[in-house]
Amino acid sequence: MTGSTLFEQILDPANRANPYPLYAELRKIPVSRQEDGTYVVSTHAELARLISDPRISSDDLPDPQKFRWTGHPITDLLVRPVRAEIRKRHRPFIFRDPPDHDRLRGQVMRCFTPQRVRGMREKTQRITDDLIAKMAGKTRIDLVDDFSYPLPVTVICELLGVPPEDEAQFHGWATQLATALEPNQRGDEETQAKNEVCFNEIADYIQGLIKEKRKNPQEDILSDLATDTDGMNDFDLIATAVLLLVAGHETTVNLITNGMLTLLRFPEHLERLRAEPETAPRLIEELLRYEPPVHYRTRLALADIPVAGITIPKDAPVILLLAAANRDPLRFSDPDRFDPDRPDNRHLGFGGGLHYCVGAPLARIEAEVALVSLVRRLKGLSLTENPPPYRPGASLRGPCHLRLALEEVAEG
Amino acid sequence: MTTSPERIVIAGASLAGLAAAHGLRERGFAGRLTLIGDEPHLPYDRPPLSKQVLRGLYSADTTLPRHPDLEAEFRLGLPATRLDPEERFVELGDGSRLPYDRLLIATGTRARPWPKPEEAALDGLYTLRGRDDAQRLGQRLQAKPRRVVLVGGGFIGFEVASTCRDLDIPVTLLVRDATPLAAALGAHLGGLIGEVAREKGVDLRLASEIERMEAEGGRLTAVTLKDGERIETDCLVAAIGTLRNVEWLDGSGLAADAKGLRCDAFCRALRRDGSVVRGVFAAGDVARWPNPHDDDALVAVEHWGNARAQAETAAGNMLAGDASAMRRHDHLPDFWSQQFGLTIKLVGLTDGADAFAVRHGSLEERRLVAVFGKEGRTVAAASIDSARWLPAYKAAIRERAPFPPIEEALDQPRLRVQEP
Fold first, then answer.
1. Which of A98, A178, B83, B174 could form a disulfide with B252 if both were Cys (CB 3.0 to 4.6 A apart)?
2. Where are the domains of chain A?
3. In what order do the strands lie in the sheet with A297-301?
4. Where are the domains positioned within chain B?
5. Higher confidence at residue A173 or residue B336?
6. By the CB < 8 Å criterion, does B409 face chain A?
7. Which residues of chain A neighbour B412 with C-beta distances below 8 Å?
8. ipTM of the predicted structure?
């Protein structure tokens, strides 16, 4: 990879297991221009500032490219362009700016009530216990397949009101649609074509579900959104539901997997969590700093922005490298040390500014229940591969498998 | 000054004093540490006093948290009465002397008393500065006076008016200027807050002053305004500003007057001739320091955030040895206020501003970010119920960006520059 820019090296799967030395290199220039005109922000002070700058837009998805002709004039000249236009206008709020963003996010936040989120603790515990019970008798597990993936998926489906029997089909959809967060993937024609097919399938499914919820509302978020009289239109509703489903599928899995991986790498912390489960919240905050589930987010500069001695020019893509800022020695002393007792741990693990993670309180509950239960009940755990294999994404970064040996599953 | 200090005295046991004490210990100072406070209370927080405490939601005990290992000696209930910077001691009200190697002066301010002493002594007349004041006034408010008359067009006056309305007490607010809060926020924002206050039922009188008070048996019964109107009231709150606690420095040679105690960029106290007083530092409301964001114009900032930041800086510099190891105090003034359901934030100082523009939201929506310019530079930004973009404007103020800053951004109305 000689000659490639630092950010290209970060995107290279070969560096997925340990991107942190590259981040340290990047931090030498707080806001650094890459050869392709992208600006990477890697230091805490600059990132914290730019994430709340009104000249930074989240509406940065590339316009759909021209697709290959199918030969059907109605499809090529009417259906596809209209559909592309509709999708462009009804992007999920993670890719939108105020005022639309505020309206859509506000409607979701009204459904994500603290009571509802707190109510998920018990359900999360029940799902966790079920998943751990299935490990009984095994001496090898894949934490991702057996636990970290199914837990948040079951939780988000239940919260949204997706019937459990339909969960299976979301796996493929969610993975495909999560490419929207990877700048090196989302622009290419093949990914866009796949995303289009995939979005149409998931949209059809959710459209059906919305109809059902309107007819027969349940105690779930989708019912609330679908029956909100002051609510969003169906296109926005679908985009929002897809966003919540994808986010629920693709992020917490990393938090839990990275959590166990980190605890197994630093067994003194595993032992401590086992002995003092009440220390879990601090440990999870440190995990969000040390191995965050989302490593960066992309933005677009709407105007020239002077920062850290340079100017990010209007229209430049901007990468907010959250995971690098989380290891900035100017903000965190001894940043490469995993230290749950760290004071004033203002990490950027959930992002910041107006796009701060909507699901943060839920993710904290899920991670806490999961890690406390896992270390309490799984005895004689060890890593069989270190580092483990990683999923391809550099933004949604986490192991695709975490194969562990275990001696015993203790009673619940 | 190269020897490390063994004994540090902090005159003033409020936010700045306590923050400095913590700052000294965090930096490894292991010697004797004494805080002098003229009130009998351990350091406490003031922002809730005009709000939750008056309203009866919190008790007046707003004691600030102290680190369990602070190991500081508190000399409470006695003011510092004299400083001898040559012999290096502080004298207390009982004549006892506290020698120091380093001294931090953080004696703050007190409420400006009602100018006519015979009226000031009336039962029913209040000022608000400390927790005892808040307790007394809070008890009175909870007993539902018929009407509260508030004098003063600043933030304390408005916050107390807001609390009174929360308690459903009729309020007349007398503001001497033609616009409320104009000194800090300018006419547009001050006018907006005045409008909201009126909607919430405050009888707001602009360009209005008290001519005289009436009393029966030492109790306030009514006030007469300069325009001749008579208002019956048994409870008057004078929120007419503050006085700096500098009288105890008379005769010390330090450059202290009604504007504050002069210090240099490193928080070191100065003599009248501008020379540095060895070992003496200042922080908080009493300190008057060169503001790097305003061409080193001298300023005393009576804000919670500055008290903490300046105490931190001073603590570091007290242990620094010599000036080459000291850090300059470059805090960008900021403060917030909550009243009538609005959260108001201000970053920078609007003194001398000659231009104003709303950059997000609008006055009509009562949600906005507005910026202030002075001679073509951005000097301050204020938000009402909409602080999310404020950090970007704060950076622009630090950089002294050309006014108006931050164009072509999200969520902005068309630019219209006005007089502040």
1. B83
2. 6-335+344-409
3. A31-33, A39-41, A317-320, A297-301, A56-57
4. 7-51+62-110+243-325, 113-240, 350-398
5. B336
6. yes
7. 54
8. 0.80
